[in-house]
Amino acid sequence: MVLGEDPFFLVEIPCDQLPMWQQVATHQAPTVVLDKLNGLSQNQSFWSALVPYNGWRVQDLNEAKGTVVNMDYYSVTINQLPGGETAPQLLEYIRKNINSFIDQTKASFKPFDNSEYLTWNSNNYIGGIIHIDMGNNTAWGPSFPYKQPDDGSVICTKAQSDHWIFTTITAPGDGEHPVSGNRQFGFIQNRNGTYTFYTRGVDRATGYIDDFLQENWNLIFGKADELWSSLQVGIANYVNSHGGNANISQDNTKTFRPNWDRVRDYLNYNATIDTFGCK
User: Fold this and answer.
1) Contact of 268 with 26, CB cutoff 8 Å
2) Fewest 10 Å CB contacts: which of 26, 123, 190, 198?
3) What SS3 state is found at 179?
4) How many other C-beta atoms are found inside a 10 Å radius of the C-beta of residue 250?
């Protein structure tokens, strides 16, 4: 009866919020990144068949199996930057030292190998591949960091002075990342002179098992919420302890999990707010 009166009742997200995630949702890996992944697949050794492997490839949001789409935003308001640092310098420091800003019992980030370490720590870091240890070492032991069943890898598909974007990928050892989509890290300068440092993600559970774990126990996005919340706290603590001033308010966190089928057309630029039915 409710749907008969309001077909968009189950959208579960304020319509004025949808545009905030549209650009991240539709971001595509550039040719230079796709060429790198294709080259890695062609040069992959025979022994990679012995570990979870489906080739090096980007995991597209539209090809995932998740029933819902995660749209999250975690930010920090910086009223005064740490002494001697500019906003781009602070973002670069966070990028290169992200583990010092997060709760590493939830996850830790490191370049996939020595070659990726050099790429990630250079000034031209697009295409850098990062392995994410998702905090499950107790099951296998610390000697097997690439054998965790819930680990994943991402690749940098955009790199600018005010933001970068990670895109989830399938990689040797890690297999498929549990979610498929993009996550942006960056900052904006507000009209009043303050800065907002943020991460914004759009992703879905990759496979049917991932979707089952999410739907029944919130194991996929719930753990991610804890991780990105810790990033918020880590950035605020760093700024406040280095001569700056930062705070986190209720407005600094937004999380929506609408049904994918109900927002897919809009996020893919196939429908406008008017035709979508938002009020």
Assistant:
1) yes
2) 123
3) strand
4) 6
Of residues 184, 166, 220, the one with CA closest to residue 58 = 166
| Beta strands in 55-209, from DSSP E residues, in sequence order | 57-58, 70-80, 108-111, 129-133, 152-160, 163-170, 179-189, 195-205
Extract the tokens encoding 240: 């406040």
Would you state the pLDDT for residue 148? 45
- Alpha helices (runs of H) in 48-177, residue ranges in sequence order: 87-96, 114-120, 137-140
Q: Are 206 and 57 contacting, i.e. CB atoms less than 8 angstroms apart?
A: no
Residue 260: C-alpha distances to residues 69, 167, 175, 257 (Å): 5, 19, 24, 8
* Both tokens assigned to 90: 């602070």
Amino acid at 165: I
Q: What are the pLDDT digits (tens) for 63-79?
A: 999 999 999 999 999 99
As given in the structure block, the two tokens for residue 165 are 């974007």
**Weakly modelled stretches of the chain, pLDDT under 70:** 1-12, 45-54, 136-150, 274-279
- Token pair of 275, please? 């035709």
Q: Which of 146, 154, 195, 199 is nearest to 177 (CA)?
A: 154
The tokens describing 114, both together, are 């020595």
Chain CA centroid to CA 57, Å: 16
Task: Scan for tokens 């966070």, then name that residue.
Answer: 94
In the block, residue with structure tokens 């893919």: 268
Q: Which domains does the chain have, with CATH numbers?
A: 2-276 (3.30.530.20)
Task: With beta carbons less than 8 A apart as the criterion, state whether 133 and 110 touch.
Answer: yes
| Distance separating alpha carbons of residues 28 and 26, to the nearest angstrom | 6
Q: How far apart are CA 183 and CA 95, in angstroms?
A: 13
